[in-house]
Each structure stands twice: as structure tokens, then as C-alpha cells.
Here is the input.
Amino acid sequence: MVVIAAVDRSDRAPNVVAEAAKIADAFETPLHVVHVLSRSRFVELELDTYNETGEAADVDEIRSTAKRYAEKAADGIDADYEAVGLMGDSVDRIIQHAEEESAHYIVVGPRKRSPTGKALFGSTAQSILLESPVPVVTVLSE
Here is the structure.
């Protein structure tokens, strides 16, 4: 069993990791800091690699990039953690990881959005809240 800190590249990510670390410590369970690269970001990175080298990007290298984003979000926390880099749909991959690891909790940091924005655009955090098989903790920014 693990606690998952689902992070993006925003300034909210360190707060998500810090809260997840507290929960993991309370349950004496491992902490996974997870970043998922979207398909569009994957295509951008692959195109950049091709333009620079003339070769297709290595999938393992792209996963390593996602893992580095997770590590950056966890920079400065005083807790043991495993950085996990995944690719694909953020919601699906985070929930899949939670199921595979028998997670206790998923911790997310949703963006503040207007009521219109909530109605028109999907939210990763909202989708995780609705689809997660485990409890989800939300960390609101100040």
C-alpha cells in the first residue's frame, strides 16, 4: 500500500507532496510522487528530440522526463519517496497506478476555476475524485 501524490508542473505541486508525505508518515506507508505526461506533451517532446537528433525519442527517456518532473515537485521534502513517471491520460494512469499499488490515498491539488470554467472544461482533479477507487485528498492553494 502507498500514498500517491499526483503532481503537475505547477507551483501547487510541492504542497501536494508535503501533504501526501504527512499522510504516508501517519500510515507508515511508502510515498509515490507521480507525474503523468499527456499525449500532447509526449508528442511535443518527441518532435523536439527528432528536430535535435533526427531520431525518434526513446519512450524510456520520455518516462524519465516525467519522473524528473515528479522529483522536482518533491524537492525539499524531508521524507522518503519514489518518483514515478507515466505517460498517457492523467486520470486513467493515476487511477491505474493506485489500483496496481493498492493505494491508501491519492492526494491532488486542483486549480481554482470559475463556475463557467468548471462547466466547460474538464478537471483532472475532479475526474480523479469521481473515478478513484480510494479516498482522495485535495490540497487547496492559498
